[in-house]
């Protein structure tokens, strides 16, 4: 297999959110990993916003308004009218939407805010595990022929599909346990994001109308994400394929359909078959950390000139790929040079932590080793209020974080980096104890 032959070579560089309202700071660094905590990996605490999940908690959640059964029943009448206008058959409406049940737990989960941030070490170590790598390798062998056919047709190497599968549902071990029509109807009747979830509900009804799955088997997350790769209904309609030839797109029970649909999704997101996701790299002691960040791109040769090397001390490829440099755990942790396919992974889930985990898990499933520079495990675990205070202090000092929201995203990390540079510190954008002290953030913010 081409990918396995070339994964670690110098010249080989490889590799759904109907994302509503994603802030500049949206990332998996939030404590309970935002929307995914109940969707993808309950399943071992998944990620906040995924292409398949489309849930953002970066905004301040309004107080929970009681949605009564009477309100819900009235709303179902309105949803039925909209579904009929959208062309959904009466049979499907009678067999599914007419039987929808109000689930207030779904509303509570949608509005839940993370209490603490989580460190890169905690996030990464919970997801890229020896057990998951070994299971991925076993599945790579078991489904070799199928995966090769999918790679040939869609251009996405098997280890990446397995990495997404592992992170999304732990290789199909957890799809969620809530009827999708119930969850989407409940959220469509809740005022906070009614329009978005109404659209997703009607899309789910269209899937039922097509006969891809029966209403009683359409089970998913509280947010309506479904199947092995946790597709939202809109992503299902746009990307799901019938790869096993049974005239159904079954992302729950058909591994050929699920894996091929994920590959088709990645191809539609812009996957480049000539590149990998990125790689771990080694930085010189005098590296200018203000050059780090996803928005700062340079050709690989320019990074070479700045002294960036592969983590094993070999020279970077001489190719002219565009890349960005990320230091998710600060200058004491690992550094990554990431390519265009990293941005594709970010279109699946708007989180740098998630995208790094996918890339590293894929590399290790394909036979690569662990990180050569593991992330430090003593990073501060900040309370949401402490992050808001940090953002407010930076804004007051002229370092723009945007509207304080309690999320340590790219905008906040950039502001921290600029503050560190002004203070003569290593400008790695990491909110360590010295930064917190200079900004007057209370010591108890460091409690884990």
How would you describe what is shown here?
The protein starts with a helix and ends in a 10-residue tail after the last helix. It has 448 residues and is of the alpha+beta class. It has a 5-stranded antiparallel sheet. It has a two-stranded antiparallel ribbon with strand order 1-2. The model is unreliable at 1-62 (pLDDT under 50). Among the domains are: 69-111 and 176-269, Bacterial muramidase (Helicase, Ruva Protein, domain 3, Orthogonal Bundle); 384-446, Muramoyl-pentapeptide Carboxypeptidase, domain 1 (Orthogonal Bundle). Helix 9 (180-189) packs antiparallel against helix 10 (194-209). The chain has helices at residues 2-6, 69-85, 90-95, 104-111, 120-127, 130-142, 144-154, 158-169, 180-189, 194-209, 233-239, 255-269, 300-305, 340-348, 352-365, 384-396, 410-422, 433-438, and strands spanning 178-179, 219-220, 278-282, 293-299, 309-310, 322-326, 335-338.
């Amino acid at each position: 297999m081409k990918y396995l032959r070339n994964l670690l070579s110098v010249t080989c560089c490889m590799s759904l959110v109907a994302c509503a309202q994603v802030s500049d700071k949206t990332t998996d660094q939030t404590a309970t990993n935002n929307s995914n905590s109940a969707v993808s990996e309950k399943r071992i605490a998944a990620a906040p916003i995924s292409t398949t999940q489309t849930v953002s908690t970066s905004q301040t959640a309004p107080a929970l308004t009681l949605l009564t059964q009477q309100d819900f029943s009235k709303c179902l009448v309105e949803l039925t009218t909209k579904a009929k206008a959208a062309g959904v058959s009466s049979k499907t409406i009678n067999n599914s939407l007419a039987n929808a049940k109000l689930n207030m737990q779904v509303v509570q989960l949608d509005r839940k805010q993370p209490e603490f941030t989580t460190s890169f070490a905690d996030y990464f170590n919970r997801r890229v595990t020896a057990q998951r790598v070994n299971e991925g390798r076993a599945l790579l062998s078991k489904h070799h022929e199928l995966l090769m056919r999918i790679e040939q047709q869609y251009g996405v190497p098997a280890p990446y599909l397995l990495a997404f599968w592992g992170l999304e549902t732990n290789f199909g071990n957890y799809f969620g346990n809530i009827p999708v029509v119930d969850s989407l109807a409940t959220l469509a009747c809740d005022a906070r994001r009614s329009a978005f979830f109404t659209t997703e509900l009607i899309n789910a009804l269209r899937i039922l109308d097509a006969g891809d799955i029966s209403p009683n088997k359409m089970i998913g997350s509280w947010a309506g994400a479904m199947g092995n790769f946790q597709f939202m209904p809109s992503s299902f309609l746009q990307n799901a394929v019938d790869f096993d030839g049974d005239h159904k797109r079954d992302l729950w029970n058909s591994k050929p359909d699920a894996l091929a649909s994920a590959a088709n999704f990645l191809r539609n997101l812009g996957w480049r078959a000539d590149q990998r996701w990125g790689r771990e790299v080694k930085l010189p002691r005098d590296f200018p950390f203000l050059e780090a960040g996803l928005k700062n791109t340079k050709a690989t040769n320019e990074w070479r000139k700045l002294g960036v090397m592969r983590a094993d001390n070999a020279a970077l490829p001489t190719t002219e790929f565009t890349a960005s440099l990320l230091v998710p755990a600060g200058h004491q942790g690992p550094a990554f040079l990431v390519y265009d396919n990293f941005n594709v992974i970010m279109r699946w889930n708007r989180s740098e932590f998630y995208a790094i985990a996918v890339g590293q898990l894929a590399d290790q499933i394909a036979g690569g080793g662990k990180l050569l520079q593991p992330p430090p495990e003593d990073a501060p675990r900040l309370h949401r209020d402490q992050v808001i205070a940090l953002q407010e202090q930076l804004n007051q000092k002229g370092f723009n974080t945007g509207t304080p929201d309690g999320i340590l995203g790219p905008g906040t990390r950039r502001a921290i980096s600029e503050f560190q540079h002004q203070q003569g510190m290593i400008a790695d954008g990491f909110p360590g104890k010295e930064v917190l002290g200079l900004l007057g953030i209370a010591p108890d913010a460091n409690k884990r």
